[in-house]
Inverse folding.
C-alpha cells in the first residue's frame, strides 16, 4: 500500500473510532475490514481525491444498509465487499449518492424479504422515471441520469446498481463489447445488471421483465469464450487481471472485471436438492457452488431449488446439513436439458 493510502487509512480509522459506529455481527465483515478493502483496491483516479469523510461515510452507510436488510445473513462477505460496499463502478462521475439513495429507496423496499423483491421494485420505479436512449452517454453518473430523465442501458444499469447497493442488495454491472452474431436492428453491444440472491440473477435495467430474462440473453448465450471481444464481463472493484470493456474509452485499463462468459453460454435451469448420504432423504442444507474458483451460488436449500448453470460445465459444491459441519467439496456436471433434479449428498 502506498503512502497516500496509508495516510487515508490512518485518518479514516480515527474518524470511524471517533464516530463510535455500531459494530457488526462477529461473523460479518466489520468496519475496519471494509475500509481496508476499499483502500487496497482504490481506483487510481481516486487515490488523491477521496476524502476521509467521504470514505468513512460510505463505509458506515454500506454496513448500516447491510445490517438492516432482512437478507443480511445471506450475503457472503466477498459479495458484500465487492458488490455493496464500493462507491463506484466504471468511469462515471463520483456522485455522493449513497445517503440520498438510501433515504429515497429504503421506504420502497423495507417490506421486502429478499434481494430479488427489492431489486424488482426499485427497477420498476426507475423504469417509470427514466427513458432509455441507446445513444446517450454510457458512463453517466446516477445523479446525472436522474437529472436528465433518460440514459443509455449502461447508465441506467449504473443507476439501478447504486440504488440496489444503497439498500443492501448486492449488484454489479455486466456487459460485452461485441456480439458473436450481430442481428439487424439490435445494438452491437450491451450492458445490464446482476443482483445477488443466493446466486447471480440477470436484471434488465429500466425494464419490467422478471429476473433472468431479456432480449440480450440469446445473444450472450452465443459468446465465444476464446474471443475476448465477445466474452461477457462483470465489473469487479477488487483488482483482477481481467479488464472490463469500457467501449466509450478503450484506452482505459483500470477497470477490473470477472470473465463470466460461462455463466451465460448454454444457460440452463437446474434443480438441486440436499440429501442425507445414508438414507437418501431430502434434508435442509446449504450449498456453496463454484466454477473454476469463482463463486456461483451460496444458499440455504430446504427443497429443490433452481440454479442457473451452464450445461456441460463441471462445478464444485460444498454441501452441508443445517445444522452441521462443512464437508469436503463434491463435483457435479450441469445437464443439457431443463428440468433435471440433481441430488447432492451430505457426507465425507
Amino acid at each position: 500500500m502506498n503512502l497516500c493510502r496509508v495516510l487515508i487509512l490512518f485518518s479514516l480509522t480515527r474518524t470511524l473510532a471517533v464516530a463510535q459506529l455500531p459494530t457488526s455481527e462477529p461473523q460479518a465483515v466489520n468496519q475496519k475490514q471494509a475500509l481496508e478493502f476499499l483502500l487496497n483496491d482504490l481506483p487510481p483516479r481516486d487515490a488523491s481525491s477521496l476524502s476521509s469523510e467521504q470514505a468513512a461515510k460510505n463505509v458506515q452507510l454500506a454496513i448500516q444498509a447491510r445490517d438492516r436488510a432482512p437478507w443480511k445473513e445471506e450475503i457472503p462477505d466477498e459479495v458484500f465487499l465487492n458488490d455493496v460496499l464500493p462507491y463506484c463502478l466504471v468511469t462515471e462521475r463520483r456522485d455522493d449518492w449513497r445517503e440520498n439513495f438510501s433515504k429515497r429507496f429504503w421506504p420502497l423496499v423495507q417490506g421486502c424479504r429478499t434481494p430479488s423483491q427489492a431489486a424488482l421494485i426499485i427497477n420498476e420505479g426507475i423504469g417509470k422515471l427514466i427513458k432509455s436512449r441507446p445513444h446517450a452517454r454510457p458512463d453517466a453518473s446516477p445523479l446525472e441520469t436522474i437529472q436528465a430523465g433518460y440514459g443509455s442501458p449502461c447508465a441506467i444499469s449504473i443507476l439501478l446498481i447504486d440504488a440496489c447497493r444503497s439498500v443492501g442488495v448486492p449488484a454489479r454491472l455486466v456487459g460485452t463489447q461485441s456480439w458473436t452474431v450481430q442481428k439487424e436492428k439490435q445494438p452491437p453491444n450491451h450492458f445490464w445488471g446482476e443482483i445477488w440472491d443466493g446466486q447471480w440473477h440477470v436484471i434488465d435495467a429500466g425494464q419490467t421483465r422478471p429476473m433472468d430474462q431479456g432480449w440480450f440473453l440469446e445473444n450472450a448465450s452465443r459468446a465465444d469464450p476464446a474471443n475476448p471481444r465477445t466474452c461477457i464481463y462483470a465489473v469487479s472493484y477488487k483488482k483482477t487481471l481481467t479488464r472490463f470493456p469500457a467501449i466509450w474509452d478503450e484506452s482505459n485499463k483500470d477497470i477490473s472485471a470477472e470473465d463470466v462468459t460461462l455463466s451465460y453460454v448454454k444457460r440452463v435451469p437446474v434443480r438441486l436438492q440436499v440429501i442425507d448420504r445414508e438414507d437418501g432423504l431430502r434434508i435442509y442444507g446449504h450449498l456453496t457452488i463454484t466454477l473454476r474458483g469463482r463463486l456461483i451460488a451460496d444458499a440455504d436449500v430446504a427443497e429443490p431449488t433452481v440454479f442457473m448453470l451452464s450445461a456441460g460445465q463441471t462445478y464444485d459444491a460444498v454441501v452441508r446439513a443445517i445444522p452441521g459441519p462443512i464437508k469436503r467439496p463434491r463435483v457435479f456436471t450441469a445437464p443439457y436439458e431443463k428440468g433435471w433434479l440433481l441430488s447432492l449428498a451430505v457426507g465425507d
User: Anything to note?
Assistant: The CA atoms of residues 178 and 229 lie 6 Å apart.
